Amino acid sequence: MNTTPTTEDRIWAILAHLSALSFGMGVLLPIIGWSDQRRKSNYASFQSLQALGYQSLGFTIWVLSYLLIIMLTSIVLLVSLGSRGSLESVSPTLLIIVFILLLGFFAVYLLLPMVAALACALGKDFRYPIMGNRLARYLGYEPSRDSEDGLYEDHELRWVVAMGHFSILILLWGMLAPLTAWMLQGRHSLFLKFQSIQTLVYQAVTTIIYFVGGFLYLLGFIFLLAAMGGIGEPNLNSSMGIVGIVIFGISLLISFVLILFVPLLHILGQWAGYRVLKGDNYLYPLIGRVVERWISKNSTIEEKSA
Questions:
Q1: Which of 29, 30, 149, 177 could staple 52 via S-S, CB 3.0–4.6 A?
Q2: Could you give phi then psi for residue 216, rounded to 5 degrees?
Q3: Quick check: 241 and 228 in contact, CB under 8 A?
Q4: Cβ distance 238 to 216 under 8 Å?
Q5: pTM of the complete model beyond 0.90
Q6: Model pLDDT for residues 45-67, shown as the tens digit of each residue
């Protein structure tokens, strides 16, 4: 096991950190780096896992921070509109502060992985603020200590699995995390295989629900336009106009219910990641049991064929 970063180690670390600049699309690179280097270099493995955490857990915190700022700003604007009847009373300073916060969070999110990549290019042991040292202790990573044992294997697997759960907030691209982990390391760990498959299915179902909600809204809107003859106002005296309004109303209601249900599924995904890090073999309601039976059935078939 290498204790000092080689050129190959540095390249993997640089790629893992810089993949964060793709906003979710590069989440597979840290897993690939970890899978390739986990038996070769503690340095490359740790940096890859740290980059994975930044892209999944860090992205979650980044999105939630944006939502919090937007919600607080909206509340201030609504209160101002309700009390004064206009937005003219809103201080321009407040809007400037909000703009600076939004831009600042965006800049920090992009800056940190670039600093990490530069540090790794120089062979430094980079640590992300807050997360880095905690992850090093969790994985048993000590760069100054000669070790042939590598990182804590169970904690490695749990970290990769948990980041797959956390990546549910990365629409579509978040599914790359559990998919890549399953394809590269599923045959070596039944725990990782099961968790990755159920996470992939869960995220796929959540994504489908989200898009179905949007599709139903669009479908209802199309019916409404058709009832209006493309433009104008619906004729309530015509059966076509009434049907268009009813279909639009029903599709609007269903789509709102579905889209509002998605954040609850996101919260459950975050909870699943937390439980995995705490040592549980978490099962999603219904999906977990189905995946468990599917894996058990396929394992039995493979054993018989062997």
A1: 30
A2: -65, -40
A3: yes
A4: no
A5: no
A6: 999 999 999 998 877 777 777 77
